[in-house]
Specification:
Helices cover about 0% and strands about 45% of the residues. By secondary structure, the protein is mostly beta strands. The protein has 3 domains: about 60 residues, no CATH class; about 45 residues, no CATH class; about 140 residues, Jelly Rolls.
Length: about 300
């Protein structure tokens, strides 16, 4: 009966032949095969069971002691299917238009690291760095050669915020030119978010700008003709205030007081690199001896990170 429509067309299977020599057990195929069942193998016209040979890519192996007998083109291999090789995509070949919108999820974005072990990811124009740290993690934006820290795991301000006070009078600390660092176990913390303050010394947890301030309440400043209030950072000693605290007779009927009290509050913004420190300092002159006392509970040191 004639076909209705176009007559069916039949394809053909690729095949090749090999000549046995009675000793060779392995033959190299032109095409790679996925498994023994992908081939129809005959020797002298006799079909071979798929257990009679193994396939390793393009190697057809009948195994030791099973060499086909000598004969010209007496081994025939018919390919029922060939191994499909997955090609390697060239660098830069996949463009943005080839990726569907919202196809890349957060879980699929790989994170790399730099030489310091900090985690890096790319935003399209800049690298975002998540710096290592036990007290807090710092998120940084690298723009060109610079690195600007914009946030921390705890929040920019709260990750570094402290206030402490001196809780016992410090007697005769300056007045004769002595430089007195207000450090040591004389401080009690009112709070210390980030644990960056200890015994009068603040340690910066990261590169940044810090607002630091102090209130100093002094006793026995009579005779001190010059007094400086300072904040000391790695950049040097910053004189926050300087003045004359000397008392003298005010004329007939006025007596020089035996003591004097003075209080001052100062603050400023300082750039301090990671692990840099800061502390308060006093230096008074010309009293003849160290007579100035720092009064407890009225002397404070505070600070926070602002940028």
């Amino acid at each position: 009966m004639a076909y209705l429509g176009e007559e069916p067309k039949f394809g053909s299977f690729a095949s090749e032949t090999f000549s046995g020599n009675g000793s060779a057990t392995s033959f190299t195929l032109t095409h790679g095969a996925a498994s023994p069942s992908s081939l129809l193998v005959t020797i002298d016209g006799v079909k071979q069971q798929t257990t009679a040979y193994t396939i390793t890519d393009t190697a057809l192996d009948f195994g030791s002691g099973n060499a086909p007998a000598a004969g010209t083109n007496n081994i025939e291999v018919v390919y029922l299917g060939t191994k499909t090789l997955v090609g390697t995509v060239a660098d830069g070949a996949i463009t943005t238009s080839k990726i569907a919108a919202n196809a890349v999820t957060g879980a699929k974005i790989a994170m790399g690291s730099d030489a310091a072990g900090d985690i890096l990811t790319y935003t399209g124009t800049d690298y975002v760095r998540l710096a290592k740290g036990t007290a807090s993690q710092t998120l940084m934006m690298n723009t060109g050669a610079s690195a600007v820290e914009w946030a921390t795991a705890s929040g920019l301000s709260e990750s570094c915020n402290f206030r402490a006070r001196i809780t016992s009078d410090q007697s005769n600390v300056t007045g004769n030119g002595t430089s007195y660092n207000m450090t040591g176990a004389i401080w009690t913390e009112d709070w210390d978010i980030g644990s960056d303050f200890s015994n009068g010394t603040f340690t910066a947890p990261a590169n940044g700008y810090y607002l630091l301030g102090f209130s100093a309440y002094l006793n026995q400043t009579n005779g001190v003709t010059d007094m400086t209030f300072n904040i000391v950072t790695p950049a040097g000693t910053h004189v926050m205030s300087r003045g004359n605290w000397s008392y003298g007779t005010g004329g007939t009927g006025y007596a020089s007081p035996s003591s004097a009290r003075s209080g001052i509050t100062q603050s400023g913004v300082f750039y301090i690199a990671n692990a840099g420190t800061a502390h308060c300092n006093l230096q008074g002159y010309n009293a003849g001896s160290d007579t100035v006392d720092v009064t407890a509970f009225s002397t404070f040191f505070w600070g926070m990170r602002v940028m």
